[in-house]
Amino acid sequence: MATTATAGEPAGVRRGERPPDITAIPVRHYGTWAFAAVVIYIAVAVVVSLAKNPNMQWDVVGEYLFKPLTLRGVVVTIELTVIAMVMGGFGGVILAVMRLSKNPVLGAIASFYIWFFRGTPVLVQILIWGYLGALYPSIFMGLPFTGLLFGSWETSAVIGAFIAACLGLGLNEAAYDAELVRAGIISVSPGQSEAAYSLGMPWGMTMTRVVLPQAMRVIIPPLGNNTISMLKTTSLVSVIGGNELLTRLETVWGQTFEIIPLLVVACIWYLALTTVFSIGQYYLERHYAKGASRQARQPKRGPDKPAGLVTALETEATAIPEEHR
Amino acid sequence: MSVPMVLAENVWKSFGHNVVLRGVDLRVEAGQVVVLLGPSGGGKSTILRCINHLEKIQGGRLSVDGTLVGYHERNGKLYEMKVSEVAKQRSNIGMVFQSFNLFPHMTTLENVVVAPIHVQKKSAKEAHELGMTLLKRVGLLERKDYYPAQLSGGQQQRVAIARALCMQPKLMLFDEPTSALDPELVGEVLDVMKGLAESGMTMVVVTHEIGFAREVADLVAVLDGGVVIEAGPPSQVFNNPHDPRTAEFLSAVL
Questions:
Q1: What pairing do the DSSP bridges indicate for beta strands B171-175 and B77-80?
Q2: pTM to 2 decimals?
Q3: How many angstroms separate the CA atoms of B158 and A187, rounded?
Q4: CA–CA min distance B102, chain A (Å)
Q5: How many CA atoms lie within 13 A of B190 on its CB side?
Q6: B56 interface with A at CB cutoff 8 Å
Q7: Which residues, 6 or more positions from B190, have their beta carbon under 8 angstroms from its beta carbon?
Q8: Quick one: B140 exposed, middle or buried, by C-beta within 10 A (0-12, 13-18, 19+)?
Q9: What angle do CA A161, A165, A167 make, to 5 degrees?
Q10: What is the pLDDT of residues A276-313, one digit of tens each?
Q11: What whole-number distance in Å separates Cα of residue B226 and Cα of residue B221?
């Protein structure tokens, strides 16, 4: 019987000892290799054809890539994106909280806002803000129906192309972000607010200290998506002369007809900005992930032993001999 | 006679058509430990949640330390309290939940001190000192910088108790504090609760731990069908129950 028990084991291996790691010949995926070869062949062909195509005018691309005119456009694009996303974020939180509140008036206002701004194209909204002067030639500050007037300004002087672009993009974004934030708030377990309430926290503090920080984990990935989308949506403000990247390049090709190389310049910059924003999103996600994982990160002000190890030792204390604890 | 810490008189509560409390009477004196027992659906957790106004009662009177919960009474009329007043009332009542409900984005110590600092406006130094004392008392001082996800269930529940105590409440409510725990972790939480009872804290505890009730409770109240069917000292309720439903329930859990 003893011979059958050890027949399958290589020489030198004994029961109870850790055997050496298995070294086996892996399965060869010949199909994958063949497919990869085809893909690389096609990719090289496309790149070579683009690189060799004289219409790409790579010298023009190089010339305009870092021109002050282009860089100023890039700065405006970044400004518009950041301002619109900040407006959208804050607006979105306010709208989401209004929609979730017990006050029916606030809820109705928020629902109407979201219905309107999601229901009309952002291009139309940008145009409306850009041509607001045609609707209201001047802006008054006062109480309607009372004759009280504190001041009056010409609309076109107050709302220039940049402000109009910010309003168009930011107010539209707020409507979308509202639904994101609402989803995030709903995702936090009701037990969290109950615990906060029973500690005597009022509703507002429960939101800002307990619910929203946890909702952020759910909100940030789609919000990053929206930010990247916004980066490119800013190009729409060229319809009101917004002076961002694409508008500036458009004015150039209007005179020089170097359309393709300038579009390549635009693509390169949008890709670069998207990359930078994605990196920012990674760090933001990491910040709000604190406490979310058992072993991913150490406690804040580190104790003398690694967290995961101590926890494991603690929970399995009975299985571990005294001298190892 | 002194003012009772909790006084429930003919309390009714329903969720839609489902009537959960059908006239609960309960009296908890200051310093007493009262254990609520009974089959599930009997209304134990609901009356506990009514005591700190997480649920609104629909009939009867419910007061804590002589003050109505959630209402002002003037000239025989009841006026709903403002949200801020309800919050202030709750800050005097600690609550420990079955599912711990620690704030996962805060460390252990942050969980314990967040309410004292932001609700009671204590200085960070004072709150941290008190918080560390309480963490030491529940045996978790060396875990103060850990996040809840890095703690075992029993440790989390002990932190939750420290968090409630850090508000220096005059009454502690426990809603099945050990029901979500692995059997070997129940003891450490019950030990903390026993220590708290010995220190003179007024406690209302919903639990299925008969041993704890027998050992620690001054009064055991059995709820079934939304009413208190039997209340008395543990020796009487466990050894000599008057109501046949109590005997039936006890034989099922013992």
A1: unpaired
A2: 0.79
A3: 26
A4: 7
A5: 23
A6: no
A7: B178, B209, B212
A8: buried
A9: 120
A10: 999 988 888 888 887 776 654 444 444 444 444 334 33
A11: 12
